[in-house]
Amino acid sequence: GGSISHHHGVGRVLAPWMEGHLGKNSMELLRAVKKHLDPNNIMNPGGMLGLP
């Protein structure tokens, strides 16, 4: 049990465990949404989704 979230969000420290917690499909969906909303990757580049 338990959760990987923190009162300030997941952040970069806990990001490596997100896929195990949410599942591969959910992470792929989050990455696709991020790429759609931020195609130039100017909002939080290199953040918790592991996008370059």
Average pLDDT metric: 84
As an assembly, this protein is: single chain
Low-confidence stretches: none
- Structure classification: mainly alpha
Major beta-sheet overview: none
Strand portion: under 5%
Distance between the termini: 31 Å
What is the domain tally? 1
Helical content (DSSP H or I, runs of 4+): 40-55%
Tell me the number of helical segments per DSSP (H or I, 4 or more residues long): 3
What global shape is seen? Answer: globular
Give the C-alpha Rg: 11 Å
Order of helices and strands: HHH
List the helices and strands and how they pair.
Layout: H1 11-14, H2 18-22, H3 24-37
Care to give the gist of this entry?
By secondary structure, the chain is an all-alpha fold. It has 3 helices and no strands. The chain has one domain.
